Amino acid sequence: MQKSIERIAGDSEGVSYEFPVFRFKGSDKAAPSAYLQAALHAGELPGVVAIDALMPMLEKAEAEGRIKGDITIVPQANPIGRAQYHFGEHQGRFHLGTRNNFNRGFPLLAAPDTKLLPDTALGTADQRLKTRLLRLSIGHDIVLDLHCDDEGLAYLYVHTSLWPDMADCAAAMGIDAVVLWDEDSDGTFEGASIMPYQNVPADVARFDRRVATTVEYRGILDVDGALAASDAEGLYRLLVARGVIADTALPAPGPFTGTVAPLENIDMMPAPRAGAVLYDVKPGGRVAKGARLATIVHAPGEAGGRTEVFAPQAGLILTRRSRRIIRAGEDLLKLVGDSKSADARSGTLED
């Protein structure tokens, strides 16, 4: 294993940021390569502890000569967001200097060629970070961006061109659900990882061996040793299943039995009123059309001070908010409906 340090210049004199990169050299040039990063949204830590639990497994495989393809690991991909606090609260989703989401605005390249990337000396610090992360990841066959939601199941975002070829990955990781998408106008890291391959020859795109996905590891409070170990085992199984690591002791993944739905089927359920949220549902539960999802207490103690929210269609509760205070118009949850949402959204679901 080799460790290097990436440094990003700040936006004022005397300020810079750095993060470590770990590389495992594969023994077979024909084997798929893999890139894993966590905490692009710097406060989302389930992926960080999963990588921490994965590293000893990779080191053991390296010592035994079982790493076939190159592996690049970035355990904490966002030192800028990691350093941001406002009135004692960590702020890792948006860059405070530009107000840009750290997982938006990545360059969407026409081909998988790092020469097409912007100059890393240009732009603001968050833009330079995004360019640097793409430079590290482009060219790998497997690209995993580890995130988490507020409260939720473990699920993947997968481009339609990679499904169902990626079903083995979802099964290996023990994922509960897969959300399929086909449009990225916002420049997410996942979009920037797959879009360069959409208009290149098939022998370059290699969709049969390509993996690019945003992994949502449940909720932001699910930072737990047992879960981290389980997630690390899932990542390891994926790397074995795809031929990055050799391990004859592991069987091939079985069929994926979780929920698969297009992004257009998701109802986000904007809150009709501001107030305190009383949920009737939890992630993982199935609901019928018309079932009560939540009650918003907007005028406590007063007649008519509660507003109920009902399911517009039958489906699976994928996520819900971790905080119980809400403003009017904010989303209450993600309901993966059995059919297209009447309020279907394209691109990203949230800011």
From TrEMBL:
Q: Which Gene3D superfamilies match?
A: Zn peptidases (3.40.630.10)
Report the residue ranges that make up the Succinylglutamate desuccinylase/Aspartoacylase catalytic domain in this protein.
31-193
Q: Which lineage ranks, top first, belong to the organism behind this chain? A: Bacteria, Pseudomonadati, Pseudomonadota, Alphaproteobacteria, Hyphomicrobiales
Q: Which SUPFAM superfamilies match?
A: Zn-dependent exopeptidases
Q: Which UniProt keywords apply?
A: Hydrolase, Metal-binding, Zinc
Answer yes or no on keyword Metal-binding: yes
- Where do transmembrane segments lie in this chain? none
Q: List, separated by semicolons, the cofactors it needs.
A: Zn(2+)
> Known Pfam families for this protein?
AstE_AspA_cat (PF24827)
Q: What is this protein called?
A: Succinylglutamate desuccinylase/Aspartoacylase catalytic domain-containing protein
Entry GO MF terms: hydrolase activity, acting on ester bonds; metal ion binding
